[in-house]
Design goal:
mainly alpha, single chain, 19 helices
Length: 448
């Protein structure tokens, strides 16, 4: 175990940046994609074997799930930054305390989310205008899904801890195993036992249990300051505060971001179950491309975090330039592939021609222009790596989220179509990037 851990670590303070950023970012991208495969497998299996209404019921939960968990996933970003800064400062006692505090926060976060998801599923789904013909199925899926939330939180926080020291490979290996298990169990429960949305939710819960427990086991067998010891598990106020200062703004940004998407989902719901199903199918490819580009944001957070802790500010700036260059060029290629093969890719989830036509709109307008979002995510990540999390959070809440909510209120009622909703994505990205870029340039000049 020690040998494996040593091989997966990375020296971010010295050596070439481009190749190291790629080696760091690609496993994160693949990890996120495998995590999304849980939901993709749910939707593909349920769409093929349980019908379009079951497909819509699972799809209607996507933004709700993101809304409920994003606050606490944001806190894991705080754990990543605190660990990375401590490594750059060579303060290994701080690393130990950060690790044990983060694990405790992950556990309590997961228990809280399980309570909310299980007992408030129906009111939440009703609030976003989930159609009556799929409401019962959507509620059942959401309640079962959130049973496994403690394991989801444990996985995310420990993965963030491992990222802080340059280890992005083991979280990927764990998700590859859990993802394969999820797909197999989906087919058994839905196709074999005709369990519908309950079957896909149960399969996801067991996959999350596998991934969370395995990373917990890895941390128990680490050496040095990263080793998890039960008798040291406590929330240390100093490090909890540092995690909160970086993670809470990021988490609140994620919550408001997801709330704006829930508003968009509510508008989509008003267009009927076919449009819901089409959006849910296209959204899976959107997530894949987004997770790819977002991995460069994670790389930027960690590389900047360690070098900022070591006070190597020039290397911080070069890391930002490399992540933008690599992220933007590779995302542009992925977006182009999705646009060229949009309709054949959508047939994975449904054979309904009308659903495919509607879903292709999201593929062309949103997925095709996602490369723009690289600038927003990377510059926000750079600021967080420096410990400045509030400015990008407020900017994204006012820009991306504010524009989307205003669009649903004022523009959509006049042009009530799926295409008019999708246009708001690139509009909100461009407007917000202009402000974030100004904040980043100002911060860099102050460093100089």
């Amino acid at each position: 175990m020690t040998t494996v851990a040593a091989k997966t670590n990375m020296d971010m303070l010295n050596g070439p940046l481009g190749s190291k950023i790629l080696r760091f970012a690609i496993p994160i991208a693949l990890s996120s994609i495998f995590q999304q495969m849980f939901n993709l497998a749910d939707i593909a299996v349920v769409g093929r074997f349980a019908g379009d209404k079951a497909l819509a019921a699972v799809g209607a939960n996507t933004f709700v799930i993101n809304l409920l968990i994003n606050l606490f996933v944001g806190l894991s970003v705080g754990a990543n930054v605190v660990v990375a800064n401590s490594i750059g400062e060579k303060s290994y006692r701080s690393v130990t305390r950060s690790v044990h505090t983060s694990v405790m926060v992950s556990f309590f976060s997961g228990v809280f989310l399980s309570f909310v998801g299980i007992f408030f599923a129906r009111p939440i789904l009703s609030l976003i205008s989930t159609p009556a013909d799929i409401l019962d199925m959507a509620e059942r899926y959401l309640q079962l899904y959130f049973v496994g939330m403690p394991f989801v939180m444990v996985y995310n926080f420990i993965a963030a801890i491992l990222r802080g020291k340059g280890d992005t490979k083991r979280p990927l290996y764990v998700l590859m195993v859990a993802g394969a298990f999820n797909v197999a169990l989906n087919l058994i429960l839905v196709a074999g036992f005709d369990m519908g949305v309950s079957g896909v939710a149960i399969a996801t819960v067991f996959a999350n249990i596998i991934s969370g427990i395995t990373l917990f086991y890895f941390l128990l067998h680490e050496e040095g300051p990263f080793k998890l010891q039960f008798w040291k598990l406590r929330v240390t106020p100093l490090f909890f505060g540092r995690i909160m200062r970086v993670g809470l703004p990021a988490g609140l940004q994620g919550v408001v971001f997801s709330f704006s998407n829930v508003c968009l989902q509510s508008a989509i719901n008003s267009l009927g179950s076919l449009t819901i199903a089409a959006s849910a199918a296209a959204l899976n490819y959107e997530f894949v491309v987004y997770y790819w580009l977002n991995s460069f944001s994670h790389a930027c957070v960690t590389f900047v975090g360690q070098n900022y802790g070591a006070k190597n500010f020039d290397r911080c700036r070069r890391a930002v330039r490399w992540t933008i260059l690599l992220g933007c060029s590779s995302t542009l290629v992925l977006s182009a592939v999705c646009c060229l093969f949009a309709k054949p890719m959508l047939t994975v989830f449904t054979s309904n021609a009308e659903i495919i036509e509607i879903g292709a709109i999201r593929m062309y307008v949103v997925v095709g222009l996602l490369f723009i979002n690289v600038f927003l995510d990377v510059l926000s990540g750079a600021l967080r790596g420096m410990g400045k999390s509030l400015a990008p959070a407020l900017t994204c809440m006012a820009g991306v989220c504010g524009i989307r909510i205003a669009w649903v209120i004022f523009v959509f009622p006049k042009y009530k179509s799926f295409a008019s909703l999708m246009v708001v994505y690139p509009v909100s990205w461009v407007a917000t990037i202009a402000v974030i870029a100004g904040i980043y340039i100002y911060t860099v000049r102050r460093q100089k």
